[in-house]
Amino acid sequence: MTGYRSALTLGGAIALIWMPLQTSAATAAATDAAASAVETKPTGKVRLIRKSDRYWKVTFANPPLNLIGPAEVQELGRIMDQLEADPRVQVVVFDSVVPGSFINHYDLGQPLEASTSLKPGPTGMHPVPDFMVRLSRLPAISIVSIRGRASGIGSELALAADMRFASREKAVLSQFEVGAGFVPGGGPMARLPRLVGRGRAIEILIAADDFDADTAERYGYINRSVPDAQLDGFVDAVATRIASFDRHAIAETKKLIDLASMPPDAEMQPGWDAFIESVQRPAAQKRLQALVKEGLQTRSDVERHLGRHTAAIKP
Known about the structure:
Blueprint: E1 2-10, E2 13-22, H1 25-38, E3 46-50, E4 55-60, H2 70-85, E5 91-96, E6 101-103, H3 112-116, H4 127-137, E7 141-146, E8 149-151, H5 153-160, E9 163-167, E10 172-174, H6 177-180, H7 188-196, H8 198-207, E11 211-212, H9 213-219, E12 224-226, H10 228-243, H11 247-261, H12 269-279, H13 282-294, H14 301-304, H15 306-312
Helix pairs in contact: 2-4, 7-8
């Protein structure tokens, strides 16, 4: 049986990188059991706060980088179940309490089986594209408040939301994956061209550099760049305003906007499949190992400046 776990020792820490190797049946069974356990064990790193019946918040609290892995994906799925089931909620805000990070990216330190063995969500898709589709289709309005880095799945969650506001001084957005040798998996190929146009989508996805909030605003990547000191109050005021309106009017208006602007759900799963396939390629593994050596998945300069470091990798 083929597995996907390899360990590198970096400064006394173990970093697990997704790469093929042969494993025993016992090891594979243990890995499968661990993956199954992920589905039921909450991490406490994604916090649901009900500010009122109509206004909810989802706060990421997974220091040092707010990485999202299989456990957090399942937790988001459970939160989505609650959002969909409650007819009173009208607005949900996603934010972070981790300095410097909204969500840096997907957790590449987990065994690949922990991600690939997760059960499909209600849409029939893997839980990552499943969550993105359900968030976009939610009758309630979703708002992302970005302070710090939103890369990879952090950017993809922001794109799946209805509105994106970012700290002018502290936000950094990117889809860094192509620079690391693999394909983005959370649907940005379906969403970005519809938001920013084909040329800018290619720049964001394939040049794979970092974007500050002002540039992201000009491109249409986010709604608005807001001075950092005003961000929380601004987002809260928008959410509170929406929460005061009539739910039927909100849901029906959003549904008609979706008809004019949303990608078909069928465009989402292929991106995840391409991500899983591409991250196992030797070229991607070589690039990932180079980034790990520089400090990927730790609070380091490579995580602060992903665009610079992916461009510096020697082929």
